[in-house]
Amino acid sequence: MCSSDLVTSEAAATMTTQRALMQNEYLEEASESAEEISETEELTEEVTNGTKADVYWLMAIRVLHLADNKEFKTHKVEYIIGMAHSISVYVLTLCLQLTITAFLMLAATRIEHEYHEKFESDTGLTLVKATQMMSAAVKAGTAMPVSDLTGFTAANKVSEIHECVQQLKVRYEWIYVVMIFIWVLNMLIELKDVTKDISCFWGMPRLRKGERIFKEDGKTVVALSPGARTALLVLGPGIRCFVAITLLFAGCKVLLFRGTMMLVVLCSMSLLFVVNLDDLMMNALSGAASKKELGDLKLVYTKTNTRLHSYWIGGLSGLTHMVSCIAFAAFYVYVMETEVMNYRQTCWSYYGAFGDADATPFDAMIRPHTD
Questions:
Q1: What are φ and ψ of residue 301, in 5° steps?
Q2: With contact defined as beta carbons under 8 Å apart, do 134 and 349 qualify?
Q3: Crossing angle of helices 55-68/277-285, nearest 10°?
Q4: What's the pLDDT at 280?
């Protein structure tokens, strides 16, 4: 009887142990499954987005008031005055930004074309051919030969040497990469603001029939009609994105064709004026009431977050932007403008080999003429 009780108790203990192991295994599998789900699960949260006090948002709030209609009718005179002020400031800012941006792009393109045309007319060579001739001379250890038969005369050589000296005023070509990288960072800030506004407007719920855009407080936007959403996207982020991208390439071109370090720095500082023009117009032409109204405006929308999004805001975005900006600056300088950069590098190699022997003394050529 005792032996049978012992066997029974051992069997019960074994079954209990097996059940416990199975339960632990099920719990581990459930935990792993929950972790896998959490990696891809989309979590929604309500986000309250503030606004920036600039001309574009000033126009946006007037569009929202007009679309809401009820508040517009209640305070018609005030909103008509506000609308007239917002439209006038917005149109003035838009005209200035687009005009300056267009002229800057045309000027940058003209600088590049005139540089190549003037070089070819003075030296009788293209930039690529001149680079090849100087590179061959450095390898052969002999100065560039002058021959009327080949069309490369003594006057052409003097012009090329003079142009080459102008390139020597910036000693290290990587300076251009650094300055263009800084310029790209400035444009990145503008583009990040644009993407933030697009995400906000696009994520707003669709306005249903009978609902209002604003809450009862008149300061919080909870939904957008299709027309208001389209107007906000075009009048704000659309224009700002166009200006930023145009300025990005125009600024890179202007900076690359500056011949001295001082001009490179001054140009990078002056180019920021166009980007900050909307802030300047807002501070100069808008009163305290408009700024307070923008400061109180809030947009509430539902945002979908994933685990990847948590990685992105945790530092992945910064790393991605940094690598992208460095890659773009290097690509623009050494790939898109490879002819100019190769010529500058070859000029330094040529003067390192023949500076005093082939033309006037090196130091005298770099010093400006005093006569």
A1: -150, 165
A2: yes
A3: 70
A4: 84
Return d(Cα 244, Cα 275) in angstroms, integer.
7
Q: For the purposes of burial, counting CB atoms within 10 Å of the CB of 269, is it exposed (0-12), middle (13-18) or buried (19 or more)?
A: exposed
Spatial strand order of the sheet with 298-305 comes to: 43-49, 298-305, 220-221
Residue type, 28: E
Task: Indicate the angle between helix axes 226-233 and 174-203, nearest 10 degrees.
Answer: 170
Tell me the torsion sign for CA atoms 257, 258, 260, 265. negative
Neighbours of 120 (CB within 10 A): 14
Token pair 């008509």 is at which residue? 80
Place of tokens 């001149």: 130
Q: Identify the band that residue 64 occupies on the pLDDT scale cut at 50, 70 and 90.
A: confident
Collapsing DSSP to helix, strand or coil, 221 comes out as strand
Asked if residue 325 has pLDDT above 90, the reply is yes
The residue to which tokens 């051919």 are assigned: 129
Report yes or no: 282 and 40 within 8 Å, Cβ to Cβ: no
Q: What is the pLDDT of residues 359-369, one digit of tens each?
A: 544 344 444 44
Cross-strand bridge partners of residue 48 = 300
69: phi > 0 → left, psi -120 to 50 → alpha, else beta; which?
Answer: left
Q: Are 70 and 293 in contact (CB under 8 A)?
A: no
What mean pLDDT is predicted for residues 243-258?
Answer: 87
Reported pTM: 0.73
